[in-house]
Amino acid sequence: MKFHHLLAFLLLYSCGTESESNSAEDGMSMPKTIGKIERISPDLDAIIAPDAKIEVIAEGFTWSEGPLWDENGGYVLFTDVPENKIFKWKEGEGISLYLSPSGFTGDKTDSTEPGANGLTLNAAGQLVMCQHGDRRVAIMDAPLDNPAPKFTTKADKWNGKRLNSPNDLVFDKNGNLYFTDPPYGLKGHAESPLKEIPFQGVYRVGADGKAVLLDSSLSRPNGIAFSPDEKTLFVANSDPERALWMAYDVQPDGNVVNGHVFHDATEMVSDSLKGLPDGMKIRGDGTIFATGPGGVLVFKMDGTLIGRINPSEATANCAIGGDGYLYLTSDMYLCRVKLVD
């Protein structure tokens, strides 16, 4: 995404309150918390406990993005796009640098957002990432517990033309890759002279390795996710003039039809509700966690908005952890919120 601030780069594992560390009555330090959880419907109580807080577990990033929960390792990976790095956070260990460079592997770039963005794992357990600076989707050819900046290209062209800057991605159960390609990694974005494709696309890459265009109508396609049955593909559009989520019917051949608006949040866009439709994750019960104006909007599969996790900062993406937490990358923060089992 295009939101970031010029902050001094700092790594800090946080265990204080919002302003400074306080101690509970038993002498244990309390976690730093920010923002609020807004309960639009009582149905949210079955998703997020009434006493849940937004905990800050790491901070000091320029623009945090792309969180991914690794079940085998029990940790979260996430990116800092402007800094061209991926970080790792694990309970009891805190924060550490995981991979550098992450999204631009050349010598020089004019991009202010060169790093990796969306992250996922393929069927072989390899890290697959959207690399803004290299303008491709790439596979990291190294085990997760011993990363090295060595990459294999999964997709970098459509019809012989270079992609803009792939942003988010998801695999289906058959191994087909779906990804979005807005211009945020290019200097000047849509007006960049380096832009070779005249639109911002949503694509699928099948077994033949070719990128197939699914939709070219969205101005800023961003987050992407499947419904639990993989019959519906959801795509966020991070345009303040058309801030919405689209839903598409997935066909047996992997293509999509019947694109329609799932939820339009354009009227929510304001200075008081930071952020735009960006990353999203969908739980097995159909609960949709979609970052947008005011944080993470929580939807039912029918489009009903039941709540919002509002850290008071623009929130780029989220990940559902196997430890019962929802992890949020929110501007300079990595946060988490306890979910109901």
Give a verbal description of the structure.
The protein has 341 residues and is an all-beta fold. It has a single domain, classed as Neuraminidase (6 Propeller), CATH 2.120.10.30. Helix content is 0%, strand content 43%. A five-stranded antiparallel beta sheet has the order 1-24-23-22-21, with no helix packed on it. Strand 5 and strand 6 form a beta hairpin. It is globular. 49% of the residues are buried. The N terminus is likely disordered.
Brief summary of the model shown:
The chain is an all-beta fold and about 350 residues long.
CATH T-level topology: Neuraminidase
Strands ordered across the widest β-sheet: 1-24-23-22-21
Alpha-beta content class: mainly beta
Order of helices and strands: EEEEEEEEEEEEEEEEEEEEEEEEEEE
Total domain modules: 1
Uncertain regions spanning at least 5 consecutive residues? 1-27
For this structure, what is the CATH homologous superfamily? Answer: TolB, C-terminal domain
Q: Would you count the extended β strands for me?
A: 27
How is the biggest beta sheet arranged?
A: 5 strands, antiparallel
Q: What is the residue-averaged pLDDT?
A: 92
Task: Give the CATH level 1 class.
Answer: Mainly Beta
Distance between the termini: 31 Å
Overall helicity: under 10%
Count of DSSP-assigned helices: 0
Instruction: Give me the CATH architecture, please.
Output: 6 Propeller
Q: Rough shape? A: globular
Q: Tell me the radius of gyration.
A: 19 Å
* Proportion in β-strands: 35-45%
